[in-house]
Amino acid sequence: TGRSRAGLGMKTGWVDGLAEWTEGDTAFLSVAFTWRLNEARDRALWYRSIGFRVRAGGPATFRPHGYLEGYAELGGAIEDAVRRHHPDATVASRGCPVNCWFCIVPKMHGSVFTMLPDFPVRPILCDDNLSALPIDYQNHIIERYRSFNVPLRDANSGFEPRTFDGGTYERWSKLLRGPWRFGYDEMKERTEVERMMALLRSNGVKPRKVQVYCMIGHEDPDTCLGRIRQIIEWGGEPYVQRNMKLNALEKTPWVRPELGWTEQKLSAMARWANRRIWRYAPFESYDVNAKTSRRRSPKQLALESVA
Q: Of 49, 84, 174, 242, whose CB neighbour count within 10 A is largest?
C-alpha cells in the first residue's frame, strides 16, 4: 500500500496544490499550482536520494519550466490522482469547450469532453464544466450518485452561465447540497451571468449559496469593481481571484499598471470582497492600508477603515 501526504495521518482537506505519495519503489508528485514547482523539485530530489523512482504530473507541469526535467519522469496519466489532493474529490469528465484565455483546462484536457462513466463516487465533484456536458451524461452522473447513496456536497469547479438553464437547475437541484458555483470573469459575460443568477434566485436559492468566481486585474479597476457589485446586486456573493499568469513561479498576482492596477489595490479589492466587508462599507471608503486580523471581524475592519 502507498502512503500519501493527503491520506494516512495527514491533513484530510485540500493539500494546497502539491500532493505526494508512494507506491512500491515509485514516488508520485501531483502539482496543481506552478508556484509549488520549486518545492516539488526539492521533494523529487529527496525521494531520489533515498532510492525512489519519481514521477510527476498535474496542471503545473503541463507548461514547460524545466524545474522538474531531469528530476522526475514527466507525462502520462495517473488514474484518480485528484483524490490525492482531497480524499473526497472525484472527476466524472475532463475538458471544456469554452476555451477561456486565462484557463489551463482546454490546453491540458482539450476543448472536447472526455467522459469517465465509471468514476468513483465521492462528495466533491471537480468536473471542469458540468452544465455544458450532454444532458444524458449529466443524468448519468446524477443517477450514479443516487445509486451509491453519496451526497454531493460541492460541485467544485461549477457551471457555465451560457449553458445553464431551467433544465440544468431542475436536474442538479435534487442532488447538490452545496453552493452553486460559476464564474463572472469578464464584463462580456454580463447577460448570461445575470440570467443565471435570476434563475437561481427565482427558485429560492439564498445569496450565500450563489457563489460567483470573479477574476480581477485583467480589466481596469472600475470595470472589475462593477462586476463585483453586480454579483451582489443580483443576489449572490463574489469570490474574487486576482489574475495570475499560468506560469507564475511565485504566488503573486499579475499586476498591470497600464490598466490602473497596483498590487496593493488588487489585494485590497480581493480582501474587501472575500471578507464580505462590502456588507458594511463601500470600497471607495475602505482603507487599502487596513490590515486583517482574526481578532477583528469584517464589520470592525470596515468601521475602522472609514473612521
A: 84
CA angle 189–193–195, rounded 5-degree value: 125
**CB 115 within 8 Å of CB 91:** no
- β-sheet bridge partners, residue 152: 176
Could you tell me if 120 and 86 are in contact, meaning their C-beta atoms sit under 8 angstroms apart?
no
Residue 62, SS3?
helix
Give the tens place of pLDDT for each residue, 267-306: 999 999 999 999 999 999 887 665 554 455 666 655 555 5
As given in the structure block, the three cell numbers for residue 273 are 470582497
Q: Give the span between the Cα atoms of 246 and 286, in whole angstroms.
A: 30
Give strand ranges (E) for the chain.
3-4, 18-23, 26-31, 53-57, 73-74, 89-90, 93-94, 114-115, 124-125, 154-155, 180-183, 210-216, 237-242
pLDDT in tens, 17-65: 999 999 999 999 999 999 999 999 999 999 999 999 999 999 888 765 6
- Nearest alpha carbon to residue 31 among 53, 66, 65, 56: 56
Q: Which residues of 14-45 are buried (b: 16+ CB within 10 A; e: fewer)?
A: bbebbbbbbeeeebbbbbbbbbbbeebbebbe
What's the one-letter identity of residue 252?
A: T
